[in-house]
Amino acid sequence: MAQRPNFKELPIKPSGIIWEDDFVDAEHEQRLLSLFTKELEWPDRPGRISLHYGYTFDYKTFDIDPEIPYKEFPEWLQPLIPPTETRPPDQVCLQYYPPGAGIPPHVDAHAPYDQLYALSLGAPAMMQFRRGEERVEVDLMPRSMMQMTGDSRLHWTHGIKKRKNDTLPDGTIRPRADRWSITYRWLRGGSRRNGVEKEKRSVKALAEKAIGESQGA
Ligand SMILES: O=C(O)CCC(=O)C(=O)O
């Protein structure tokens, strides 16, 4: 497992938020945003929209959807895979949040998935963690990678409020702007579908190559 000296737990409640600033540099981020806006085909509807890679999650069964073929990770995604896990993720979701969009409070405790990471790109947004009456805001700064573990992952909800501005701790009002996130999920106990193993091996080989290159850089 690759060591990331800058991957540190935030000294806040909820515990278990592991964080790395500048997981990608600003130039790399600009290339990604240009690709997202000019080359990818997005669902044509307002609000938060998503593209899935790897397995597709079925929100009815809370499991992977066996009807949707495994979608290989595109080349641009390879260097963005968290190098701290022993194998590449099984499901990756690229989401676009136009200004004012959010995601309702939820816990990613779906049985099939184990690890959860999220990379933020574009404009910052405040994420709110909630447990009972407790509320904690975490500023999702662009280019940061966050891993949710322990309490933050299982015992607090997290969400992004639908609003046009965020209020910072010092009272500053910060307008929302275009934001993208990439979330990464790993199936518990590894891949479960026959027939995709060959594809998955090639994904693993590519990911390992990317990790090797990023370590050598
Ligand atoms: O956009 C994000 O940073 C987080 C998204 C999220 O909470 C999720 O996909 O479960």
What's the helix and strand layout?
Layout: E1 8-9, E2 17-20, H1 26-38, E3 49-54, E4 57-58, E5 63-64, E6 91-97, E7 103-106, E8 113-122, E9 125-131, E10 134-140, E11 145-148, H2 150-154, E12 157-160, E13 165-167, E14 173-175, E15 179-187, H3 197-216
Bound molecules: 2-oxoglutaric acid (AKG).
The CATH topology, please?
Answer: Jelly Rolls
Any ligands, ions or cofactors bound here, and which? 2-oxoglutaric acid
Strand content: 25-35%
Helical content stands at: 10-25%
Structural class: alpha+beta
Supply Rg.
17 Å
Name the overall outline.
Answer: globular
The counted number of beta strands is 15
Looking across the biggest beta sheet, what order are the strands in? Answer: 1-2-11-8-15-6-3
The unreliable regions are 193-207, 213-217
The tally of structural domains comes to 1
The average pLDDT score comes to 87
User: Mind telling me the CATH class?
Assistant: Mainly Beta
Tell me the span between the first and last alpha carbons: 17 Å
Count of helix runs: 3
Major β-sheet annotation: 7 strands, antiparallel
> What's the name of the CATH homologous superfamily?
Alpha-ketoglutarate-dependent dioxygenase AlkB-like
Oligomer: single chain
Query: SSE order, as H and E?
Result: EEHEEEEEEEEEHEEEEH
